[in-house]
UniProtKB/TrEMBL annotation:
This is Glyoxalase. It comes from Deinococcus radiotolerans. CDD domains: VOC_BsCatE_like_N (cd07255). PROSITE patterns: VOC. InterPro entries: Glyas_Bleomycin-R_OHBP_Dase, Glyas_Fos-R_dOase_dom, VOC_core. PANTHER family: CATECHOL-2,3-DIOXYGENASE. Residues 12-127, 176-286 form the VOC domain. The lineage of its organism: Bacteria, Thermotogati, Deinococcota, Deinococci, Deinococcales.
Amino acid sequence: MTSSAVLPASTHAGPVHLNVRDLSGTATFYATLLGLTATEQSSSNVTLSASGTPLLHLHAAPDLPRAPVSRPGLYHTAFLLPTRADLGRWLAHAAQLGLRIGSGDHLVSEAFYLSDPEGNGIEVYADRPRDTWTWRDGQVQMDTKAVDAAAVLAAAGIDPTTLDGAVAFAAPQGTTVGHVHLKVGSAAQAARWYADTLGLDVVADLGSAAFLSWGGYHHHVGLNEWHSAGQPAPAVPAAGLAGVTFHTQDLTNLRAHLAGRADVQDAGDHLTLHDPWGNRVTVQQG
């Protein structure tokens, strides 16, 4: 079976699971930052959603230590907003919250970066139209340049100097987890594993980082070794990433592709396994 036949081209990122030391505080942070709603809530778990679509599952882990930056795991969860105007409304909201954020114009998208109170990375971004992306020899052309923040705000009708026109932010319908970016011990090894196991295409290879996708997207999975080069799978648990999810229309080919592997758990409507650095990966049908 070729890698391109493992999962349908429409396969995409789903909700991210985080183990957090302060469940209430972290849930409030994400709800405020992104305008998400708690659709399930207990003393041990909170699910945060946009228009009913779960984006984050937070699990209480008050006794776990905070993960060091060199630990393989989550680099960031990337929340994709439907339009540039939505991104402008969010940017004004973040400015009014007084948050310190970074940015990057990646040619295919415009993105802003920050971390949650427990050190988990966050990207909030909007894609440029696909017909403006440049491809060469199967590789999508990406870069990191300065974002024209004033133009992003203006796209939402917001004055970049005074923030006049800013309104209370709620995650618009269509907000999703656009991609997940992971820290690994070897970007090359991780790229091979994700390509061979899940049928992702490597669409950008930077040596110390790799970006992979299904169906010609700029990336559903990012992998880098910038802080974690040479690190093995962690031997003890820590707060941070508990698992990533991908949604697909059909598990038939993936199930056949992984048949006989002892590390695969098959629950009928989803398959779960772990990458070489212990990151739990679930592929959910439907």
